[in-house]
Give the backbone structure.
Amino acid sequence: MLKELLQKSHMQQREKVDSWEDAIKIASIPLLKEGIIEESYIENMIKSVNKNGPYIVLMDYFALPHAKAGEGVNRLGMSLLTLNHPVDLKGNPVKVFLVLAAVDATSHIEALADISKLLMDPKNYEIFMSGDLDKINDIL
């Protein structure tokens, strides 16, 4: 399931960004272009972090931006932005932004389990941190 959701066309690599808000906006572009999400979903992800703090930072240098399921989401999707230089996300340096767009409370669970399992392997985690989109695509 993860491979279908996180297609190579949904992955981007950048040297750096000016802010974590910019990172979320840039990471979301492929989903927005394909009509998977609406602009409101991007705004909701940013508002959610401003309201609830850096809860999207799941591991060192790794964030999973998301907002309330179904609001501004047309279908299940994921996109990825990797950065060569981390950006500060409310006191946490982040190099990888994996955007999750969920349509309901359950359809994305399998994909989350898959990504969690992948990242538990230190070699896979290092591949994500390297920002090498070809290698990331290969391990998916």
